[in-house]
Write a structure and sequence with these properties.
Layout (H helix, E strand, L loop, with lengths): L4 E2 L5 H6 L6 E5 L2 E2 L3 H10 L3 E8 L2 E8 L2
Antiparallel strand pairs: 1-2, 2-3, 2-4, 4-5
């Protein structure tokens, strides 16, 4: 899987869930993301939480983030 969004400054609920600056966001709720707009759309449609697929140091990890 290629692409993803580089997280430059993790903050808010994502940072509290363990997302770090320098992580690569590959997918949100199973949908590959290539733009901030896509992320905003999925988060806006989510009721209580989203699952982020993060790539860090060559490893892919799921990070649940509460949004509601």
């Amino acid at each position: 899987m290629h692409g993803g969004l580089l997280i430059e400054d993790a903050g808010g609920p994502a940072a509290m869930a363990g997302v770090q600056s320098g992580d690569l966001l590959m997918a949100i709720n199973g949908k590959p993301v290539t733009s901030v707009e896509q992320v905003r759309e999925v988060v806006a449609a989510a009721a209580k939480s989203v699952a982020l697929l993060i790539q860090r140091d060559g490893n892919q990890i799921f990070v649940p983030v509460r949004v509601g």
